[in-house]
C-alpha cells in the first residue's frame, strides 16, 4: 500500500509543476495576480441622470451622482442626509429600501441596520468605464431589457 502511494505521488509530482507555471491574471487582465499593479485612475462620473435599469433581481441601484468626498463614519453618513425616510420627500431622492432596516436576525430596526450602513460597499456610481475584463453576463426576463 505504501509503495502504491509513493508511486502515485511520484507520477503526480510532474503534473503539479505544470500547474504551478500557469499565470493567473484575475480582474486586472494585464498584470499577474502575484505582481503589484498601479491603481487605475478615477473614471469620469456621468452627470446626474435618471436611474439606470437593473440587470438582475436584488441588484443594488447605481448612484447617478458624484460621491467623492462623501463622509461615511460611525457617527455620520452623507448618503442618509438625502435618502433617509425622514429626508427623501424634501430632497427628491429615492427612499432607502425597507430591507436596509432589517438586521441579520430579521428584526426590523428604527434606524439603518449596521450591515447596510456603509452604502458604497454595494452602491457604486454610474461611471463611463469599460469593464476590466470581458463579461458575457446577460440578464433574464424583464431585467434583460434596457429601460433607459
TrEMBL record:
Signal sequence bounds: 1-19
Primary location recorded for the protein, binned into one broad class: periplasm
GO BP annotations listed: anaerobic respiration
Residues involved in heme c 2 binding: 100, 119, 122-123
Post-translational modification: Binds 2 heme C groups per subunit.
Pfam families reported in the protein's UniProt record: NapB (PF03892)
SUPFAM superfamilies found in the cross-reference section: Multiheme cytochromes (SSF48695)
Annotated binding of heme c 1, by residue: 65, 79, 82-83
GO terms for cellular component: periplasmic space
InterPro entries to which the protein is assigned, alphabetical: Multihaem_cyt_sf, NapB
Localization in the cell: Periplasm
UniProtKB keywords: Electron transport, Heme, Iron, Metal-binding, Periplasm, Signal, Transport
Gene Ontology molecular function: metal ion binding
Function of the molecule: Electron transfer subunit of the periplasmic nitrate reductase complex NapAB. Receives electrons from the membrane-anchored tetraheme c-type NapC protein and transfers these to NapA subunit, thus allowing electron flow between membrane and periplasm. Essential for periplasmic nitrate reduction with nitrate as the terminal electron acceptor.
Annotated family: Belongs to the NapB family.
Subunit structure: Component of the periplasmic nitrate reductase NapAB complex composed of NapA and NapB.
Protein name in UniProt: Periplasmic nitrate reductase, electron transfer subunit
Source organism phylogeny: Bacteria, Pseudomonadati, Pseudomonadota, Gammaproteobacteria, Alteromonadales
Amino acid at each position: 500500500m505504501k509503495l502504491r502511494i509513493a508511486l502515485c505521488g511520484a507520477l503526480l509530482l510532474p503534473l503539479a509543476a505544470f500547474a504551478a507555471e500557469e499565470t493567473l491574471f484575475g480582474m486586472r487582465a494585464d498584470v499577474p495576480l502575484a505582481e503589484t499593479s498601479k491603481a487605475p485612475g478615477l473614471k469620469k462620473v456621468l452627470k446626474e441622470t435618471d436611474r439606470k435599469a437593473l440587470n438582475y433581481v436584488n441588484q443594488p441601484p447605481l448612484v447617478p451622482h458624484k460621491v467623492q468626498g462623501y463622509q461615511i463614519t460611525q457617527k455620520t453618513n452623507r448618503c442618509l442626509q438625502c435618502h433617509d425616510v425622514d429626508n427623501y420627500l424634501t430632497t427628491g431622492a429615492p427612499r432607502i429600501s425597507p430591507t436596509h432596516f432589517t438586521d441579520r436576525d430579521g428584526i426590523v430596526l428604527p434606524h439603518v441596520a449596521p450591515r447596510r450602513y456603509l452604502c458604497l460597499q454595494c452602491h457604486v456610481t454610474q461611471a463611463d468605464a469599460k469593464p476590466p475584463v470581458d463579461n458575457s453576463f446577460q440578464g433574464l426576463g424583464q431585467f434583460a431589457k434596457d429601460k433607459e
